[in-house]
Amino acid sequence: MEGRMTRIFLCLFLCFLAGIATNDAARQGDALNKLYFDVFNLKRAAPASAATSASNVFSDLSSKAYPQKGLKESDKISKLPGQPEGIDFDQYGGYVTVDAEAGRALFYYFTEAVSDDPSSKPLVLWLNGGPGCSSLGYGAMEELGPFRVMSDGKTLFRNPYAWNTVANVLFLESPAGVGFSYSNTTSDYGENGDSRTAEDSYVFLVNWMDRFPEYKGRDFFIAGESYAGHYVPQLAHTILQHNNTHINLKGIMIGNGAINDETDNKGLCDYLWTHALISDETIDAIHKYCNFSPDASNQTNQCYQAVGVVNQVFDTLDIYNIYAPLCFSSGVTPSPKRYSIENFDPCSDYYVSAYLNSAQVQEALHANVTKLNYTWSACRQFAQWTDSPSTVLPLIKECMANDVRVWVYSGDVDGRIPVTSSRYSLNQLNLSVKTKWQPWFVNKEVGGYSIIYDGNLTFVTVRGAGHEVPSYQALRALVLIKFFLDGKLLPA
Amino acid sequence: MEGRMTRIFLCLFLCFLAGIATNDAARQGDALNKLYFDVFNLKRAAPASAATSASNVFSDLSSKAYPQKGLKESDKISKLPGQPEGIDFDQYGGYVTVDAEAGRALFYYFTEAVSDDPSSKPLVLWLNGGPGCSSLGYGAMEELGPFRVMSDGKTLFRNPYAWNTVANVLFLESPAGVGFSYSNTTSDYGENGDSRTAEDSYVFLVNWMDRFPEYKGRDFFIAGESYAGHYVPQLAHTILQHNNTHINLKGIMIGNGAINDETDNKGLCDYLWTHALISDETIDAIHKYCNFSPDASNQTNQCYQAVGVVNQVFDTLDIYNIYAPLCFSSGVTPSPKRYSIENFDPCSDYYVSAYLNSAQVQEALHANVTKLNYTWSACRQFAQWTDSPSTVLPLIKECMANDVRVWVYSGDVDGRIPVTSSRYSLNQLNLSVKTKWQPWFVNKEVGGYSIIYDGNLTFVTVRGAGHEVPSYQALRALVLIKFFLDGKLLPA
């Protein structure tokens, strides 16, 4: 009964936030809405608890290793349409089958390191969240990839702070149904969830490493943001459980990630209050009348009313960067506008969508080979997300116990999964402080703050960055990934 | 004894913050540092309390009304060096003697409204804080005046969001010793304080209205920021007490203002924590060990240590806009840089200083007629600030009781006198909510939030604005002043 009440509450709570999604999507364009809207709106299969999330029993996935011969060569991208001259790294794009029987295949885009010797650099897998958002559209094209799309939707400009300056970066569109990834079994789109996402991603990795055998045993890191706060530790967990020696997992990094629903939700509300987006009366009501525990029941009308005010905030400003301008343009421009890597263009979603829906671009990427009956879009809203534990903290602990480096970071002007949430959630681990809270610096400016806990967990803030940290603070994000990969203290 | 302990504590507390001032000043240039550094570092004449601040007995100031004949005409500015063509309003600059015996004279810069009929527009007096900062350098040249200074320090560009599009705006450099204002009695510089600042400002106004008699009886408003949180209500109080019919005081407006030390200080610390600039441990120590009450004694070492961390934040980033870049250039550029009213240039202090220290500019402004033996600087640090009550809330109440419109606003990314402080301080008034907290809009974007309390007090936030609101959000600030002057609800 309690479990049912919880689900009803969460459902209603997120009817508000789903309403948000709808409104905002309508405002920003359905195909391009920037909302990782499902964090609260999950249909939980069962009242999930910390205890259940690390104890999954895994299927035998060995049958899903498929022949990869010759595929690497055919995945090589000779040139992306509109890319600038003088590109000094190799790029690949293509599909990896993760379930031949169902016809599930995941699309990847891979940018080798800019280096005389890419083999000296680690491999980083990047995952965007959602659930349902694209690592190609967001991660590669708006955040940390080597190119960003100009306002004409046709030409690319170089991102000098791309992460492939320090690593070989693999962008995965996951799970099937997201971006160019697909399933030939339509019902797969209706039954996605965390577990299959982790399993498919694991199978992807095993096959991808057969296709790119030089990366077997290479130092390997998983990074991602938002709902990838689930994907990243769940994939790490799957890797650890399967004990695959080819996958040399060294660390995971989660940015503005959903990691513990109760404290994430509480932190969200507190952040909105402390950032002067809701009133004293509203936060008082939330503190008094709402219970964000996964086992909560009997929420009051006062709670619903207060949560309705949170709804209004989501509806009126860009919650993913509470100080950013909105996009009001209806689409791409005939000729490219002046751009600046320092001032993220809030209309970038439109440019990326135009670019990735071009037939020439898809051909160059080796994408959409099955001629999907829908256009590429940045986020897909799955009808059902069948499983999502209320916390991944046990998986983070598991990583720590297995000597996997864990960094959690937060762009501090994101209101969706704000720095307050991440602090509250990590505090649930009750770790001792090893290196106290202190600023780190880039070009003599405070890049943010960091604190290191016993057990090799580092928490980092990125000053002035929204939900998609590298979109808003590209240089600071590059410093972050560099020091994460090196396992070093950020520059003081 | 308690009073003494308080002063010792405040003194030590502000030895930290004074250290800040020194460091930051050294970094940004002594003459141009942007610190309104004295808020905490006040030497109080006596333990001030709410009760004392509204009960001053006023001197008879009528003897300080001096002949003004012919002075208006000679104050008219024909043209400022480097100003753009097509200026459609009149400007004046000059001195008003406020104490003939001591030789104290205050410098003003007056920009009439851009209008076919300036006489239809109200009169707004603008005051910057400090104590010791210039309304000409900050208010007029970096915030709400008609011109801003280009990076060459020689040419001006038009501010399309200047407040003289809606009002006749009078900038006063106050008290004597600030900017071009001076005293021939050197000891005046050592004995400044709130009371004399209010009295001199009142005398200034009386004389200025004799010089500009068309403004007698005109709707009159006082606005100011930072430590002008003291000046504004104190001047309003002085006007109310003197019952001068020429000064038709309709409203006051205070931005990011010091209004109640205890809650301002608590709010500052909480803001730094909620904005992820200090650690959980530090805020816990501050909450546990510090007592910001004006009557507090026996502060602990733990409190001093925690406050030392606050010090470090002030020392490492621009506390006046916690997300803004710093200025690293050593001065003006040979030719003017591209400018944008939307992206405030953090090096503007240098351009303004160069401009205002030019002999031609001073001549055009009718400034520095006595050939001061120091250069114009944006802020002057007085050796002693002899009186400063710990709260001006009783004066705000007095305004409300006398039907003087009161608006308090806050740029929400200022860390110096942050929105948290203003909310805590206003909450001390225990007012009922008349119109609940809601967003206001400019060009379909959230300009901030507002709440109206019974008794005609409005609190407004300005989203994405630092301490000097019109510097960072010029358009939003213009909407703010327009609706304040009209006494209307901000646009929903």
Automatic annotation (TrEMBL), chains A, B:
One of its GO terms (molecular function) is serine-type carboxypeptidase activity. Keywords: Carboxypeptidase, Disulfide bond, Glycoprotein, Hydrolase, Protease, Signal. InterPro entries: AB_hydrolase_fold, Peptidase_S10, Ser_caboxypep_his_AS, Ser_caboxypep_ser_AS. One of its GO terms (biological process) is proteolysis. Residues 1-25 form the signal peptide. Transmembrane segments: none annotated. Its EC number is 3.4.16.-. One of its GO terms (cellular component) is vacuole. Belongs to the peptidase S10 family. This is Carboxypeptidase.
